[in-house]
Amino acid sequence: MNKREMAKLYTKMNPEMLSIIKAENEIEEFLETVKEAIVIDGKVKFPKIGTFEILTRKSRIVANPVTKEQMTIYPKKIIKFRASKKIK
Predict the structure, then answer these.
(1) Per-residue pLDDT at 17
(2) Helices 3-13/20-41 angle, 10° precision
(3) Distance, CA of 19 to CA of 86 (rounded, Å)
(4) Cβ pair 71, 64 in contact under 8 A
(5) What's the pLDDT at 80?
(6) Which residues, in sequence order, are CB contacts of 47 under 8 Å at separation 6+?
(7) CB-based burial of residue 18 (10 Å sphere; 0-12 exposed, 13-18 middle, 19+ buried)?
(8) How far apart are the first and last CA of the chain?
(9) What separation in angstroms does the CA of 25 have from each of 7, 73, 83?
(10) Rounded distance, CA 19 to CA 79, Å?
(11) Which residues neighbour 67 within 8 Å (Cβ) at sequence distance 6 or greater?
(12) What are phi and psi of 50, to 5 degrees?
């Protein structure tokens, strides 16, 4: 589901008459707020839904399949979502 489809679903579920553009703006504001909260705290929990958290991947050495040249993939941070038991 992309953001446009989510906005259409949000307008159908919302009792107020929202345009799709306003719904997309509200969804974008919510996502930005979640991003900021993850950066500040490192973890965001939604009861009965799940948890977003930051994980750090370690650096590793891999080989290019064509040239067999050794390359280093540097460590990076990723966001992981774990669904709650009720959603599973």
Answers:
(1) 85
(2) 110
(3) 32
(4) yes
(5) 93
(6) 84
(7) middle
(8) 19
(9) 9, 36, 25
(10) 30
(11) none
(12) 160, -170
Q: What is the pLDDT of residue 87?
A: 82
pLDDT along the chain (88 residues), means of 10: 91 88 94 93 93 94 94 94 87
55, two tokens:
């994980």
Residue type, 43: K
Residue with tokens 């991003």: 35
Its sign, for the CA torsion 22, 23, 24, 26, is: positive
Distance, CA of 27 to CA of 79 (rounded, Å): 18
Task: Give the C-alpha separation, 32 to 43, whole Å.
Answer: 14
DSSP per residue over 39-87, as a string? HHHSEEEETTTEEEEEEEEPPEEEE-TTT--EEEEPPEEEEEEEE-TTT
Q: In whole angstroms, what is the distance from residue 7 CA to residue 25 CA?
A: 9
